[in-house]
Amino acid sequence: MPTSVSVTVPATTANIGPGFDCLGAALTLYNRFRFTLLEQRPGVVAIEVRGLEAERVVTDASNLAYKAFASYFHERGLAVPAVAIAIDLNVPLARGLGSSSTAIVGGLLGANALCDAPVDQAALVEMAIALEGHPDNVVPALVGGCQLAVANDDGTATLCPIPWHAGVIPIVVIPDFELSTAEARRVLPAAYSRADAIFNTAHLGLLLRGLESGRADWLRVAMGDRIHQPYRQALIPGYDTIARAAIDAGAYGLVISGAGPTLLALAPVEVAPQVCEALATAWQQEGQLAKAQILALDTEGAKVYPATDV
């Protein structure tokens, strides 16, 4: 068994319009975690964090990566070994790009790789969903690609990989302010109309076919939503202006990434640079600092390496 491993976990974008709490995709932006077993009493932890917003991450036993690491051993009835964790952050915190999911997946995979009787991916998926509370971020972070996760009555999840056309380019614009998932959920209504449920069902079906085929006419319609976006847009200053700028530059549409405030545009490959520039410019004109990036779909998900490789 190794005594030190590195884990790379991709950022994710969840919901993608009508896919609320069930659809997510892994993106080519990564957090990295190194786990090294220590010859000390069980339960000892030493954490070092570097990179983006590193000073804001706790370095005691309440650190989310460590909590996931420890929960793995608790779940299996094993003592939690002493461990040193080094974290390299590239995914911004509390911005709707699945930073918490990277910590959960990283902790579970690190524990699994250092356990002398590792479990399979299906078991790790169930552990990750139990820790996160819903599957739309942790599933693509773990397995990669675009994933539809269906919650079953017995508490398990059925996963369905969604084909993603190579010509559909994800572009994110990340503002210099945060929006907590709890705050974003508080603005949602307790119930929805039949018309809204039918609207989202139809649009999600069209989105899945649009992502697979790359058909522009389907994608321009498919990103509509009545479950979460109409209520959350008010929490994101300048949303309507930015959406119009993205579409005018050639994007199929703009949605809130996860709980926000990061916004996700999908665009044809030939206009992706123009859309990226338009997103950054529009938000700056609204008085907000923002960083726009052209990304790609990560198809491999989280990876475990010998510690010296990452």
Quick description:
With 310 residues, the chain is an alpha+beta fold. The protein contains ten helices and eleven strands.
Overall description:
- By secondary structure, the protein is α+β, with helices and mostly antiparallel strands.
- It folds into 2 domains: 4-162, Ribosomal Protein S5, domain 2; 168-294, GHMP kinase, C-terminal domain (Alpha-Beta Plaits, 2-Layer Sandwich), CATH 3.30.70.890.
- Helices cover 35% and strands 27% of the residues.
- The chain contains 10 helices and 11 strands.
- Strands 1, 2, 3, 4, 5, 6 and 11 form a 7-stranded mixed β-sheet that branches. A 4-stranded antiparallel β-sheet has the order 8-9-7-10, with helices on both faces.
- Helix 1 (64-75) links the parallel strand 3 (45-51) and strand 4.
- Helix 1 packs across helix 2.
- The longest helix has 20 residues, at 194-213.
- It is globular and about 60 Å long.
- The mean pLDDT is 94.
